[in-house]
């Protein structure tokens, strides 16, 4: 297992909802990584009961707004010289563009392929988004991220 202290420069993605780690791991393309990565599942957590953790021994670029859309409770630790240099807390972004697709077959984005898929946050507590064009409701989560 990869411990934080074995990461020299990299990223630790913590407080992932138990069970979602695998999807985030593959969304980040870590299944094809040529550097050390670890997915640790069902770690005991005081706050959450169980959680997943991803450790990446490389400074990769992560789109934090998409990650926040997938799971706003995630925290990110940036590791530099084997120490936590920065902690980032995520939240649901106000707007996502080309992250999910509108499922309404009558929506203009379904018929006109050049139009970007834009959703705006409508209810932060319920993680509800609405399509910019047709108002179709979408609840944020990892399942349908493009
Ligand atoms: Zn729509």
Structure commentary:
The structure is a single chain. The protein has 146 residues and is mainly β. It has two domains: 4-89, 2-Layer Sandwich (Alpha-Beta Plaits); 95-139, Aspartate carbamoyltransferase regulatory subunit, C-terminal domain (SH3 type barrels, Roll). Helices cover 12% and strands 37% of the residues. The chain is built from three helices and nine strands, in the order βαββαβββαβββ. The strands form two sheets. A five-stranded antiparallel beta sheet has the order 2-3-1-4-5, with helices on one face. The two termini are 30 Å apart. The structure holds zinc ion. Zinc ion binds at residues 102, 104, 107, 109, 131, 133-134, 136.
Order of helices and strands: EHEEHEEEHEEE
In whole angstroms, the N-to-C terminal distance is 30 Å
Unreliable runs, pLDDT <50, ≥5 residues? none
Number of strands: 9
**CATH topology group of the largest domain:** Alpha-Beta Plaits
Bound molecules: zinc ion
Fraction in helix: 10-25%
Most strands sheet: 5 strands, antiparallel
- The CATH C-level name of the largest domain is Alpha Beta
Given helix and strand content, the structural type is: mainly beta
Shape: elongated
CATH architecture of the largest domain: 2-Layer Sandwich
Strand order of the largest sheet: 2-3-1-4-5
What's the structural domain tally?
2
Number of helices: 3
In percent, how much strand structure appears in the residues?
A: 35-45%
Rg result: 17 Å
CATH superfamily of the largest domain, by name, is Aspartate carbamoyltransferase regulatory subunit, N-terminal domain
